[in-house]
Specification:
Strand order of the largest sheet: 1-2-8-6-7-4-3-9
Shape: globular
Radius of gyration: 13 Å
Helix content: under 10%
Largest sheet: 8 strands, antiparallel, barrel
Order of helices and strands: EEHEEEEEEE
Number of strands: 9
Number of domains: 1
Distance between the termini: 8 Å
Number of helices: 1
Length: 123
């Protein structure tokens, strides 16, 4: 399962979703369009999707796509957040990693300001 992520109408990222139930629920709900927020080096937005928390993690890798159940949020991690200790990438709470950015320049995300227009669609 592959998706394209368009940010502010210009930044295109391509991601591969994993084979978890969380990924399948999110993939079946696409396309999504929302106004995202920035929290450190994470973009997140409320999706309105109810998906399970699978293999919860709090420390992530650059490019991870994750789902945070309390807000039904989809998160794109590209660097440390306010919750990080040192250089780690830490979520606000346990998340389900459901995919990974495969193509695109994540460094440009560090220059974004809110609000962030984000669209995710099936490839």
């Amino acid at each position: 399962m592959e998706v394209d992520i368009c940010i502010n109408g210009v930044i295109i990222l391509r991601a591969a979703l994993n084979k978890t139930e969380t990924a399948q629920v999110i993939f079946s709900a696409l396309p999504l369009h929302a106004q995202g927020n920035i929290w450190g080096e994470e973009i997140y937005f409320a999706s309105g999707i109810k998906a399970p928390l699978i293999d919860p993690k709090e420390v992530l890798d650059v490019g991870d796509l994750a789902y945070w159940p309390p807000m039904q949020a989809i998160c794109i991690f590209y660097g440390p957040t306010p919750a990080s200790l040192g250089d780690e990438i830490r979520a606000a709470g346990p998340v389900s990693v459901f995919g990974k950015i495969q193509e695109g320049d994540l460094e440009v995300l560090k220059k974004l300001k809110e609000p962030v227009d984000i669209a995710i669609k099936k490839k």
